[in-house]
Amino acid sequence: MWNVLYVDLSKRDFWVEDRQDLFDRWLGGIGVAIQLFREEIKLDADPLSPDNVVVFAVGPLTCLYPMASKTVAIFKSPLTGNLGESHAGGRSAVAIRMAGYGAIVIKGASDMPVYLTIGDGTVRFRDASTLWGIRSTVTVGRILREREYGRGLRTIMRIGRAGENLVRYACVVTETYRHFGRLGLGAVFGSKKLKALVIYGRESIPVKEPRLYRKVYDEIYDLAVKSELMKKYHDIGTSMNVNMLNAIKGLPTMNLRYSSLDKAELISGEYLAENRLGRRVACSHCPIACIHLAALREPYEGEPYFYKTTYVSYDYEPIYALGSMLGISDTDGMLRLLDSVEIYGLDAMSTGVALAWATEAYEKGLITVNDTLVELRWGYVEGYLQAVRYIVDQVNQFYRDLSLGVDHASRIYGGEDYALAFGGNEMPGYSTGYGAYLTYLTGARHSHLDSAGYSLDEKLLGKEYPPPEHLIDRLVEEEAWRQILSSLVVCFFARGIYIADRVAEALKALGINHTRDTLIDLGFKIYREKYKVKLDLGFRIDSLRIPRRILETECCGRSMDETYLKAALKYFEEKVKGMLSET
Amino acid sequence: MGKRLAVLDAERCVGCQMCMFACNRRFSSGGYSKSAIHVRSVGGFEKGFTVVVCRACEDPPCAKACPTNALRRRVGGGVILDPSRCIGCERCVDACVIGAVSWDEEKNKPVVCVHCGYCTRYCPYNVIGLEEV
């Protein structure tokens, strides 16, 4: 049975509905979340009003198979005004399903700060006034950890001051080091005066075919720990991309004026693993442990032999955004910036890209020190640390504007040619070619993970690009399949293991009938549903902005041609139109 | 001689909880609510993890606390539960100072480790293992 928990913050009420219908038809995760969102949202809702709706969803593989450790969140994004989607791991997915839910729908808004504890079949509304305004999300986690029930069996999702202050790219932090990072879920929480969610549970999930279940489980487990498929995520982690992209000149550097950075090795995964790695941790029910924590040892000024050691989680994207993008190759400086966005609950990627744009605008005189209040200069860590605080506290008009995203800020101050956002979302860290940028433009959440065009670019290094239509077809196919992964919900890192035939088998053991073909078909259907909502919310493919900068700076040693991108977008638009006219 | 499950090196634990899910699979169900092994953070992920497993006491306090002799000594240490004798009083839970006796809410009976070692196959980091006693 699939229960959905509904919480109305305005009425301080909650109820549970059996939504087996949705899970039967749409599997779970994104497939179900998009339907629940569609049922509840008013299309013209202000994302920061009580009308916005947040849906968290897990899927049929959650708690049952390894690496099915992700939760999908859907909401209207206050950053783009369009569909918001963000995924996170930690213990979130397991905790939601163990609490007895396939999805949680949160609507309305509280008139005072609250946090919710969800478990034992009930929802408790707790006063969060004392937690509101606490400087660090780590402290908030520590308080809730000590106060609430369910050690080891729960998730603690919370926002920081960035979310409270409605920075449009504030994130929701879970288990200290994982995030619903992109598109501003933290600000949505802030607007609802929702400081945190503590979710725990001890449900049991019966399995239809135990023998087959154990067989498929072992096969997946062995592939995860014994084959090469997941090793790279465990060893160096995603930050292995720093050296790799730097070498092929696809590492966005100094607001993408360049595509490689001097001394990039000092912020590389290899360097960090050898010199700073303090601990690896894992999401619940995932043996990989891809979460790398650097031990940052810092002295207190003026006090001999007095140090603090902070554990800072690092991954490729935050390193790109707060490292190379800002011209920073100082290892500890980069880690301090990563730690500061963690403390305030900001999306590292949007923050880095916003600061990179601001640095260039400052250099070109579009803004002055009267706006920035601190000198913004490539590689100048102290200035950026200060600026991060100013964004969070929105100390003046400039920082209020910057807290609305780089699209917004550049519309006011100029410099749109080098404001690196796509569909309103600040760019990810791959400047590898047409594949990457078309993913950013066409992907439903404007994320590199939507359709992984960067990976096509890497395969096409030194080769001729296919016609734009061909590239779009491949991206759409990839994005459609990823809807299945996001419905199960499994981590994209395990995509090489969760291939269609194996997914069908894993589901069969649970009594869910699918074949490779029906899964692929369902992926397209979910993709279509998602794009339909996106268009209904006002997204227009023909008004996508292409920042000039991406045409000026070479990607992996070659320039991109705008006509190719435009032809691809034109074809994509027709393809979407065609897709939506199918019944 | 029997074998017992032991924590070999908790510092190597990454908190993935694979062992808990493994323990639960013995009952052909998903999740970790029937697990006899528990992994939780030492006050936050950054500080590492505590791994709680039954120590296989030679003279187990949980058995001594049981008013109905539902928990009997196991060869090699620890206890074996006879569910038909258990009245669900939870005294065994209180008696275990390391918290290794957990509770099956559905059946209202304790969950105790039988030292079968099934979980060890699923710990890729050699945090837990079987020892000869």
Unreliable segments of 5+ consecutive residues of chain B: none
Helix content of chain A: 40-55%
Largest interface comes to:
A-B, 44 and 30 residues
Structural class computed from helices and strand pairing of chain A: alpha+beta
The average pLDDT score of chain B comes to: 94
CATH topology of the largest domain in chain B: Alpha-Beta Plaits
The largest β sheet of chain B comes out as:
2 strands, antiparallel
Terminal residue distance of chain B: 6 Å
| Radius of gyration over C-alpha positions of chain B, nearest whole angstrom | 14 Å
Strands of chain A, count? 18
Beta content of chain B comes to 15-25%
Total domain units of chain A: 3
CA radius of gyration of chain A is 22 Å
Tally of individual helices of chain A: 25
Q: How many separate structural domains of chain B?
A: 2
Run of helices and strands of chain B: EHEEEHEEHEEE
General form of chain B:
globular
Question: What is the correct CATH architecture of the largest domain in chain A?
Answer: 4-Layer Sandwich
Tell me about this structure.
The complex is a heterodimer of chains A (583) and B (133). Chain A has 583 residues and is an alpha+beta fold. Chain A folds into three domains: 3-200, Aldehyde ferredoxin oxidoreductase, N-terminal domain (Aldehyde Ferredoxin Oxidoreductase,  A, domain 1), CATH 3.60.9; 240-425, Aldehyde Ferredoxin Oxidoreductase Protein, subunit A, domain 2, CATH 1.10.569; 432-495 and 515-581, Aldehyde Ferredoxin Oxidoreductase Protein, subunit A, domain 3. In chain A, the strands form four sheets. Chain A has a six-stranded mixed beta sheet. Chain B has 133 residues and is of the alpha+beta class. Chain B folds into two domains: 1-53 and 114-133, Alpha-Beta Plaits, CATH 3.30.70; 56-112, Alpha-Beta Plaits. Chain B is 14% helix and 24% strand. Chain B has three helices and nine strands, in the order βαβββαββαβββ. Chain B is globular, with a radius of gyration of 14 Å. The chains are: A alpha+beta (583), B alpha+beta (133). The A-B interface holds A 63-64, 66, 94, 97-98, 138, 141-142, 145-146, 151-153, 175-177, 201-207, 210, 213-214, 217, 221, 225, 279-289, 291, 293, 311 and B 14-18, 21, 24-25, 27-34, 38-41, 43-46, 48, 105-106, 122, 124-125.
